[in-house]
Design goal:
The structure is a homodimer. With about 300 residues, chain A is α/β, with parallel strands linked by helices. Chain A has two domains: about 100 residues, ATPase, nucleotide binding domain (Nucleotidyltransferase, domain 5), CATH 3.30.420; about 170 residues, Nucleotidyltransferase, domain 5 (2-Layer Sandwich). The first copy, chain A, is built from nine helices and 13 strands. The first copy, chain A, has a five-stranded mixed sheet, with helices on both faces. In chain A, strands 11-10-9-12-13 form a five-stranded mixed sheet, covered by helices on one side. The longest helix of chain A is centred in the C-terminal third of the chain and has 25 residues. Chain A starts with a strand and ends with a helix.
């Protein structure tokens, strides 16, 4: 039986999944710390491949999802700041030279979107906008079954879209991006700033509030916390109206921890979306779903991607 | 010899072009006023088809580029405000019932982009961002040879992207869109507002300045006019940085009258683009070209599109 080895490489953990060609249920999974065992992220990946190869020598393909800018034509990770500061890592070449496989190297949001499309919240759709809202805001788009990547694979920075010219500082160093206004850290930064200005809240200042503790406080009626989610929802509505005008999907899939804040975020988001969309036609037939594959989305997507492109 | 009849339907003129299957040089062209001869735009289109059919009875296809939101699956023009206020016009069905042809109905910016890709400024590229800046800001994207349309063909409103939340009013009724900040009318509105505030300028207030007269004054050193193009260039840089992050093209094609203002607009635009792009990687290998097919782009694109999709 031929098998496909997939990796979802994250800033904290590296997840590996081994699939047969018949099922999206992995035969074997493993999760290790990205920089654990006194090894670099790259050493850990190579170590895992070696270990799994000794147990399952009949690999057909290796497929990797990487959190950053990936030149998918050449298999080079141009920038993955969360993975040991990776910059211009010729990952395909390294794996190929060591193991003889030419691995697929793709952006993680693209692979999660691909997985959700084929096996999750996007089944029965061909026009999908997948957006993940957590520490960052990322995503991918599928148009008539075609996964957009861009010339060098860099067209995946969906959250780095200015919607407030000269607005708050973003993690990338630029200003006013959707990520700087509606990600988990953006929600927390807003609350901390308001607390520093003396706004009353039930939240303690130490430990500093996070999107999670703010969501809890909001559900208990804390006005500042509710306001923070309303503000994030407002900006998400502005940003998603942009996405709808640019991509006109039939299905939006929301992933990432912040998305799962329920009505607290969803209601102001959807109100704002309706307000900012230039025509109701964009909402006709539009499904908005939560992601269904959870932490497995990247692995399942990387698996399906390699199957479809072998 | 089989022929393809194409239409580029505009708010002012309807252009028709008849092509053989062998060449992008039309055998025959005709331009009439969209609402001329006391006929409605639709009547004029049907009249033109009839007239051309009597001369060239061996048509293989009819292909139409429409300035608005087009449901290209069903051939329905959802909204084309400039064409006699068209709303939900089943153009495909009407033409089919009258002439027996099933015409291609597509958005005009998409067809112009397709033409420029196959025969103009985008040859040798597979990842193209085509943006036209004139009365409005519109455009289309080609990703790895795939023309993006969106679920109902509405994903072409590239200029209706908020970059200044709650910014100036746009033609569509929403606020802060790129079109409201950098189109011809946006440039003129800014100058008129500054004149009303008493800013000195060589421009007369009657007739009211237009993007064209402002460009002329700027080239003669008029400070307010130069400022107006700097401002538009700034916002174009912000907007195009968004496009690069979302689409990562290898080729930008600039069309439309405002684009052709030369360095007056291009310099502040490119400065702003460099400033707002989150990584120089987006500029690596990026060509920025002016459109080459002029007024013929839509016809040539509609011709090539029907050839490729027959």
């Amino acid at each position: 039986m031929k098998t496909i080895l997939t990796f979802d490489i994250g800033g904290t953990n590296i997840r590996a999944g081994l699939f047969s060609e018949e099922s999206i249920k992995p035969l074997y999974t493993k999760k290790i710390k990205t920089s654990g065992q006194n090894r670099s992220p790259l050493e850990n990946i190579l170590f895992l491949i070696e270990e799994i190869l000794t147990q399952y020598p009949t690999l057909a393909a290796i497929s990797m999802a990487v959190p950053g800018s990936v030149d998918n034509k050449n298999g080079v990770v141009i920038k993955a700041p969360n993975v040991g500061g990776w910059k211009n890592i010729p990952l395909r070449q390294i794996v190929q030279e060591k193991f003889g496989f030419v691995p697929f190297i793709e952006n993680d949001a693209s692979m999660a979107a691909y997985g959700e499309w084929k096996h999750g919240a996007g089944r029965n759709h061909s026009y999908i906008l997948y957006i993940t809202i957590s520490t960052g805001v990322g995503g991918a788009v599928i148009d008539n079954g075609h996964l957009l990547t861009g010339f060098r694979g860099l067209g995946t920075e969906k959250g780095h879209m200015t919607i407030v010219d000269d607005g708050p500082l973003c993690s990338c160093g630029k200003r006013g991006h959707l990520e700087a206004l509606a990600s988990g850290p953006a929600i927390a930064a807003y609350v901390r700033q308001k607390m520093a200005e003396g706004f009353p809240t039930m939240l303690p200042s130490d430990p500093a509030p996070t999107a999670e503790t703010i969501a809890k406080a909001a559900k208990q009626g804390d006005a500042l916390s509710i306001d923070a989610f309303h503000r994030a929802g407002h900006y998400l509505g502005v940003g998603f109206a942009n996405y709808l005008h640019l991509f006109n999907p039939s299905c939006i899939i929301l992933g990432g921890g912040v998305s799962f804040s329920g009505d607290l975020l969803y209601q102001p988001f959807y109100e704002s979306l309706k307000e900012h969309v230039m025509s109701e036609e964009y909402l006709v037939g539009l499904e908005i779903n939560y992601a269904q594959l959870g932490d497995e989305a990247g692995l399942i997507g990387a698996y399906q991607w390699s199957l479809d492109n072998l």
